[in-house]
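Schema walkthrough. Field components (list of strings):
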Amino acid sequence: MDDQTIQAARLGNRLARTGLLLELQDPWYRLCLSLLRDPDLARDAVQETALRFLRNLPEFSGQSQIKTWSFGIAINVVREIRRQRRFDPDVDLIEAETTSAGPIASAVETEQRSVLHAVLADLPQRQREAIVLRFFEELSVEQTAAAMQCAEGTVKATVHQALRELRRRLKQLT
Amino acid sequence: MKELHKQFDAARAEYQAVEYPGNLANDLFPSHRNIRRFILAGCFSAMAAAIALLFMLHRPVVTPTKSVAIQPHLTATTVPTDQNLLEFPQNIQLVPEYQVISIPSMPAFPSWSAGDETKSSTTQEAT
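Field assembly_structure (string):
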């Protein structure tokens, strides 16, 4: 994603915006799917993220990478969806996470896949966000903090807690 | 620690393999297709209109007969004057002359008795 494309997209160039969406759709989907663990919900979240991204694009200052900045939007959307689903009496997101047959949820059932995803599903939301951004998206602490909209120290502490919890649970599994 | 690293590597590979199903831009801007369809429909209708226009222009034209312009100074004008009127004849007899009309007498019809005689003779012949 070069600066010219971003600048053109900021000014409303449709082609540039389409290019940006094409570039960001996969990272957004990965992030949303790993946090929501439901392909349909993740797709909805990506579309909502894209709409907000395009709406707020003129305000993008360029201080951070556009991908990191857009992850902040995606995480907000995911948090909102989770909040809505948690208060919806008809939908039990926690149960859906453990019984969903999505590509990540079936990790425990199919031994070919990583068991880490299954363990990640049990982590608190903040810890999961931190792990996904830091180790799967390979963002720096600073970028993770920008995406999660918190301090760098908070990211470090959250990651530390998450890793300790992951180790403990993996030990239990093996 | 090594085990966790292995798990992270495997999970990362799995994570990176995930792709968005479809095209986000198309999902968000379905009007792209509509615009394309609209343009196509417009092109087709324009072509149809052009063909219709060509047919209209190249069809045999029936030229109307040359109309004679009526010149206003040649039109006949009648001026009612006393000179144009014929004089009414003075010696016309308005009342017809008296004539004696004689109606001839009505023709006589045969009497009933004469008819009976004829009838009886016919009956006799039949018997």
